[in-house]
Each structure stands twice: as C-alpha cells, then as structure tokens.
Amino acid sequence: MPFSPTNRKGTVNGVIFVAIFAAAATMISEIAFVKSLGISPLVIGIVIGIFYANTLHNNTPKAWSGGITFSAKKILRFAIVFYGFRITFQQIAEVGAEGFLVSLIMLSTTFILGTWAGQRFFKMDRDTAMLSASGASVCGAAAVLATEPVLKAEEHKAAIAVSMVVLFGTIAMFLYPALYNMGIFDMSAKEFGIYVGGTIHEVAQVVAVPASIPGASEEMANSAVIVKMTRVIMIAPMLILLGIYLSMSAKKSGGEAGGVKLVIPWFAVYFIGMAGFNSLGIVPQNIVALINQIDTFLLTMAMTALGIGTVFSKFKGLGLAPIYAAGTMFAWLVVGGYFITKWVVATF
C-alpha cells in the first residue's frame, strides 16, 4: 500500500516530486508565446515527464515510485471528477439540438473510426487505438487520461495518444482560421463556432481558433466553447458504455463461466454529478474559478506522472501507425465534421 507506515514517506516524496514538475509546467504555460499557441500545462507536463523518463529516470529513488503511480492513477480520478465544475447543463441547453447532435455524432463516429481503423488497417493494439480515438473524439489529453484507467492501459500507450492530440490539435488550431479567412468554410458565425467546438481536440485549442480570426463575433466564440464542453461531458456516458463493452467482450472470449465483472468507471458518474451540482449555481463563481485552477494543476500532475512512466524503448514496433490512425481521424473531423455541421444546422 502506498501510504502504509513503511511506504508513506517515499510516497509523499514522490507526490511532491511530481508536483514540482507540474508547477514548472504551469509556469511555462503562462509564458506569452506558449499561451498564444494554446498549449495547456497538461501537454507541457507530459513533455517534461517524458524528457525526465528518458534522461535522468535512473536517479529517482525507488521508494518514490509509489507517489508517482499515485499521482498518475488516484489523483487523476479525483481531478476528472472535479472537471465537472467547468460545465453546466444550462450551457449545453444554450446551443440547443444543433450543438448537441453535432457533438454526439462527431464523438461517436470518430471514436468508432479511430478504434476500427487503428486496429484493422494500421495494426495497432486495442488500447493504443482506443486511447488515440478518445483523445480525438472527446477532449484531447484529458480524455486520454480518463480512458486510460478504464482500459488499464500502460503509460506509454497513453503518451502516444497524447502526442497525437498535440500534433493534430495544433495543426487544426492554425488550419481552421486560415481556411475560414480564405472563405473556404461557407458558414455563419454560429455554424463555424459549432463546427470548431465539435471537431477540434483540446478545449484550449477551441478557444484559440475564434481568437485567431480578425473580427470574430462573440456568438462564434461562445458557440465553439459551449459545444466543446458538451463533448467534454459526453466522456462520462462514453466511458460507461466502454466499460460495458469491455466487460461483454471479455466475457464472450472467456465463456459464460468466466465470471467477468462489469467495471463501471464511477469517477465518470461522479463527474456528471459534479456538473449537475455546478449547474445549480450555489457555488460563487470566484470559488468555481479557484476549483478549476486547482483541478488543472492536479490534471497536470497526473499528466506529468504519466510522462515519467514513459520510456521510448517501449515504442519500438509501432512505427508510423499512430500518426496514420490519428491522421485518418483528423481528416474525418475536418471534412466530415463540416458536412455534418451544415446538415444538422439546416435540419434543426
């Protein structure tokens, strides 16, 4: 046990060690140039963690490993629950059926496409394919973090998925404003906002796109963020369905006598409950803002710990498959997302 009398000191030291890295990642994310790129401290944290894992990792006391694992597993679940304070049900209602349907269609189709193509065409293992698909379909790095414990995947597989989110999310952040300014997107401000929120990976990247368009209306920015947060809250039912699917698949492969236990990701259920509580408006906004700042730091700690457990030697044999799979999903998000948004808005 990590906090048993014999392991307690090492675990605490390990958690403090991760927190120091997370603090550094947070400070770097506040640098003007980094902030302008929409790079979140979560991404910086995993980069720092990976760098450390592949250079100085042997210098880490073995007793600290429990604290690093605790940060990557337990603190992660706690942080995902409190991620619900970023969302209210009223925000989701504001964009109506259009935003909800675009979010639902793009999330489900992207996740299915990424999982299927990753395994069928690019010969990736199930966990890496699903983690990459969750990052592209829901909310980037945070979705990868939330899906990893449901799959019980290895740290390096989650790191691969996060790196794909960073690569293609960054491309999207520059591509969308360029195409919009060129007049290629035949969309109203609200339509484009729904399209951005329904197809771009990270929340920070969604915020950055309207901000990069000269004269972008408040309606565009608000629609983008609200639709994106609708996708975020959908991570909870997605993880529950994924848990049911994995349980049924294991039972089917092991036979009826296998006695496979259904694993429900309760932190996802609590996440919805927290969003519902936030929707009541009981907690003052300044307290909510503080909770979100602390939550971002905890997520950064989890991501940093994930990076510390990632050694490049574990990547051997994957080749370019993750890039091909992520590129396929990105093409679907850009092209398919455009036509689906136009169809949904015109229909509803």
Layout of helices and strands:
Elements: H1 8-29, H2 32-36, H3 41-53, H4 65-82, H5 89-94, H6 96-120, H7 126-139, H8 141-151, H9 155-181, H10 189-199, H11 203-211, H12 218-233, H13 235-254, H14 266-279, H15 285-308, H16 321-347
Q: Total number of helical segments?
A: 16
Q: Which word captures the global form?
A: globular
Which radius of gyration do the C-alpha atoms yield?
20 Å
Overall pLDDT confidence:
85
Unreliably modeled segments: 256-260
Strand content: under 5%
Distance between the termini: 54 Å
Number of domains: 1
Number of strands: 0
Proportion in helices: over 70%
Order of helices and strands: HHHHHHHHHHHHHHHH
* Oligomeric form: single chain
Structural class designation: mainly alpha
Describe the main β-sheet briefly.
none
Give an account of the 3D structure.
The protein is an all-alpha fold. It has one domain. Helices cover 75% and strands 0% of the residues. The protein has 16 helices and no strands.
